[in-house]
Amino acid sequence: MSSMGMRRILLMLLFLLPLTGFSQVSILDNVANAIKSGNSKEISKYFDNNVEITILDKESVYSKVQAEMVLRDFFAKNPVQSFELIHRGKAEGSAYAIGPLKSTNQSFRVYFYIKNKGNTQLIQEMRFEKKK
């Protein structure tokens, strides 16, 4: 193989390798944007079959459909004014994000946890806690 051909392969690898590590970042951003717009239907696209949702002191495990309804109700009662991710992290096969959500009623600390299931990343847990 010529050095020119080898260079092309190396350049392609340099561009493609970073993309493989960012798949979880994009789902974090997608979920964050859906939270920001109060879009429970968009968030539910990333739910696993069962999702643990905590809103203030009420914690339960819901089916994907029930979880979407719980979030829709939450956003109806707490219209989002602003949301941003301030912390994100990842470990082998999982990722999480934390950020403040300001609604017309009160402020929350939002946490969500995503885990790899096969070739997809799915939300396992979401928490909306009263911001202190």
Secondary-structure topology with pairs:
Layout: H1 3-21, H2 23-36, H3 40-44, E1 47-55, E2 58-63, H4 64-77, E3 80-83, E4 87-91, E5 94-103, E6 107-117, E7 120-130
Parallel strand pairs: 1-7
Antiparallel strand pairs: 1-2, 3-5, 4-5, 5-6, 6-7
Write up this protein.
This protein has a single domain, classed as Nuclear Transport Factor 2, Chain: A (Roll). Helices cover 39% and strands 42% of the residues. The protein has helices spanning 3-21, 23-36, 40-44, 64-77; strands at 47-55, 58-63, 80-83, 87-91, 94-103, 107-117, 120-130. Strands 1, 2, 3, 4, 5, 6 and 7 form a seven-stranded mixed beta sheet that branches. A hairpin with a 2-residue loop joins β6 and β7 (120-130). The longest helix is centred in the N-terminal third of the chain and has 19 residues, at 3-21. The protein is elongated. Mean pLDDT is 87; it is low at 17-25.
